[in-house]
Design goal:
The protein is built from seven helices and five strands, in the order αβαβαβααααββ. By secondary structure, it is an alpha/beta fold. The chain has two domains: 31-100 and 139-188, Beta-carbonic Anhydrase, Chain A, CATH 3.40.1050.10; 105-138, no CATH class. It has a five-stranded mixed sheet, with helices on one face. A hairpin with a 6-residue loop joins strand 4 and strand 5.
Length: 188
């Protein structure tokens, strides 16, 4: 049985048994926070449990490494929407130890891409159109520095209201222990 078939079979029972009722909440985060964290599978439930968050408490954005690479990209737009339209009042950037983006090498990534059938011609075409694949596919050397960099991009964004604190944390992916890298309240 494929994953899709298994998911759809489960979903049918989930809806028929009205199991969704326990998750009902509004679109506004109860704790008025927006979180950017990594898509690492170990954090799916651990992050919210370690922060004492329940369904509806926070807007959670996930990407590879909890990285913001540019102030005018999708992640930053999502953060601004959470603040202006969904009543979030605090931003949390949460990286984690043992992240797959640590030391990610663009050369090895490009090698895997070509091994999977993407032509050299396609890669060159992207480069000629202004996409720098070496930086687009690069990770980071230090999770602490990466979190600080993402916090800085958010905090210094020209559209971020000055009263919104931006925090930076690192979570341990096995224990859930949080360490503060940037306390956004101390900057106010």
């Amino acid at each position: 049985m494929s994953n899709l078939t298994e998911i759809l079979n489960f979903n049918q029972q989930f809806v028929e048994n009205k199991e969704y009722e326990q998750y009902k909440t509004s679109k506004y985060p109860n704790k008025k926070m927006v979180i950017l964290s990594c898509m690492d599978t170990r954090l799916v439930e651990l992050l919210t449990k370690a922060m004492n968050l329940k369904n509806g408490d926070a807007k959670i954005i996930r990407n590879a490494g909890a990285i913001i690479t540019h102030p005018f990209e999708n992640v930053m737009r999502s953060i601004l929407v959470a603040i202006y339209k969904l009543k979030a009042e605090e931003v949390y950037v949460i990286g984690h130890h043992d992240c797959g983006m640590t030391g990610l090498n663009s050369e090895s990534m490009l090698e895997e891409i070509t091994d999977r059938g993407i032509s050299e011609e396609t890669l060159q075409s992207l480069e000629h159109s202004g996409i720098q694949l070496s930086s687009f596919l690069k990770g980071f050397d230090s999770v602490t520095d990466s979190v600080k960099n993402s916090v800085s991009i958010v905090k210094n964004h020209p559209l971020l209201p000055p009263e919104v604190p931006v925090h930076g944390l690192i979570i341990h992916p096995e224990t859930g222990q949080l360490e503060v890298v940037v306390d956004g309240l101390k900057d106010k």
